[in-house]
Amino acid sequence: MGKAVLLLVLGGTMAASAMYISRDGTLLLQKQEEAGYEGQVLAREAAHSAFNIIVGRVKRDFDNYRETETNIDYRDVTYDVSAQDGPGGTVEVTALGSYDGYSYQVSGILERGDRHLFDAITIDGPVTTLNFENDYYISGLDENLDGSSGAGPHVRGLLVSSTDAYEKALNSAAASRVVGSDGLLDIVQRSPRTSLDMLESAILNYDDAALLETSGSAIYESGTMGDPTAPRLLRVDGNVLLGGDFSGYGVLYATGNITFEDNAVWHGLVFGNNTAGGDHLFEDNSVVLGSLLLRTATGDPDAVAASREVARSADVIQICHKPPGNRSNMHTLTISSNALNAHLDHGDTQGACDSDLKSDDGTSFNVTIRDNATVRFSRETLMPLKAILEQVDIGNNEILVTRTTEKLLK
Question: Collapsing DSSP states into helix, strand and coil, what is residue 254?
């Protein structure tokens, strides 16, 4: 009897011990799993943080930052980062985070976005002659005001809309003197990236503090107009000549011939539309730092005249009215400026409708760029113009980031 009781007690004790051992083993395994999970999480977070660090460095200096750094300690974790050239002008980045024997890797590709509205030069419409002579230079590679390379986007050197203009450009241009995002002899034939009608309508309808306007030919040969933080909109209804040491900032718009000579410089957008054709000349050491748009386009003469007349009025403004329920029947209306917001709220847009403006090619024109004259794209000079015209917006300096792989290595 006593032995039976003893056996029962010993059996119960051993069972209890086994139960506790099993429980302790389970707890130990659970702790190990938790520690392992924590290690994986911390390694992953370290990799993500390191990835953001290397992406930020590349964004700040996309063209030049190519580095590899290893075993960087940060608190209880370490990380490695690398940025190297990838295919097609991309940058391949890799980040590795490590903690307590666990490593996690994040890789990706960075590339420039293609969000821009302007190229270095846009020629829209038929041309009679397109001459490039001597030591001229056309560049779609982004340039800052101080002459240093910009962060981009880089754009095309010359965009033309007609086959005839494209052939003449190829026959006249030297490969090394027209450069852009596509390399040397960067000339492309296609439609402009933005609606030139809408942009021109907005220029004609602008009537605010930045406006300077002349009727008839205008000559500027000295002094400075505007500045980088306070650009102006110079609207010339006729020919315009910039010469001497004149320097301007903002939007220059002319309905006649445009001539740049001597050491004249315009920072921003130059837009010419001479419906009679005419001649545009850029020579000597003159500079356009921003973008040059030249066109010859006509439409309904009454609509064009009305647009220009409305642009001179402080009390009325043109809108493109889109009737509710029949939005395809859009048409230009002239309204009180006080009623503008109400119209915008139900879908109308400021400025004349495209169909009421310059839908047809005008008379062919002549363009000459010669001597040491240059046209160079600059995001820095164009971005401030959005304060004048909403349509002048080349977008953010966008670097696209794509994560290609994420994986636990060990």
Answer: strand
